[in-house]
Amino acid sequence: MKRSLILTLVVVILAGALTLAAEGRKYGKSLTLKEKTKISDILANPQKFNGKRVLVEGPVVGVCPRRGCWIKIAGEKDFESLIFKVKDGVITFPMDAKGKTALAEGVLSARTYTREELIEMGKEHAKEEGKEFDPSTVKGPKTVVRIEGEGAVLK
Amino acid sequence: MKWRKWTNILHRDIGYVIVALTWIYAVSGIALNHISQWNPNYRTVKEISRISPIQGATREEIVSEALAKLNLTEKPKNAFRPDPETLQLFFEKKTYSIDLPTGNVLAETTRPRPVLYEMNQLHLNSPKKLWTWLADLYALALIVVATTGMFVLKGKGGITRRGAWLTLIGLLIPVLFWVYFSLKEVK
Question: In angstroms, what separates the C-alpha of B41 from chain A's closest C-alpha?
Fold first, then answer.
């Protein structure tokens, strides 16, 4: 009796863990959208989606190394990715999110930055990643497309 | 006096209960304060190596060629080409970044710092929900311990004499700093 009770408990715990693993880990608010938008469609015409709520899916190819305050999600095509930025402290993505598949929802922002603004951003970004930054590599102005993230599931 | 006996009991017993939490918040507080100088959550080990240049044309060909040249049998969780000259391969805890024309490889292994990672997650309230309430309770307990602490001793070392001066110094530290900080901001 006692043995079967322990066995049942182990099975229930294992089943729960497997279900959680299959569903993935949730970060921030629950997802509300069902229809996914392709990252390639967003990048092809960012102004069309500016200010709109979108749900995107793709592999995580970068994580904010200090605060976990953004992830970079790759698109379906090579060389395409966008940043999913969350408010500091509201969501903290783990470094081992790299390589996992993200289903992420937020409001799209397509903003054009001047060269000076891009240099400032580049400096900050390089500082965060502990890398060297060469301002001469920045050619501006440039439209930066990112999602102001609210919720995500990583699996 | 009876009230002093009770404040001392509260100070002592709540103090014991919050010792571990205070260590957790204090140690992780120091670690997180210096987040711009180091990563308090993860340790990343970087290894540089070299393979022969990759010549495949499609992503599939490039990935297979890279895996073969790196002697990797495990299939990566994901692969990405951030630009035409780079391939990134993602495994559970390891990422390879390969410069295709030169064959230069940067392998990065990331692991959470044992204990400190968990402490930081609690400090930052990553679990949310129940931990939010526990952290609130801890904050209240700190207020009780600090307040009752002022009344533990009576006489020369108590709050009416030596304790008053030390409490005043403790109050002046944030006030004077804020005045200095505000003046600096105005300039």
Answer: 8
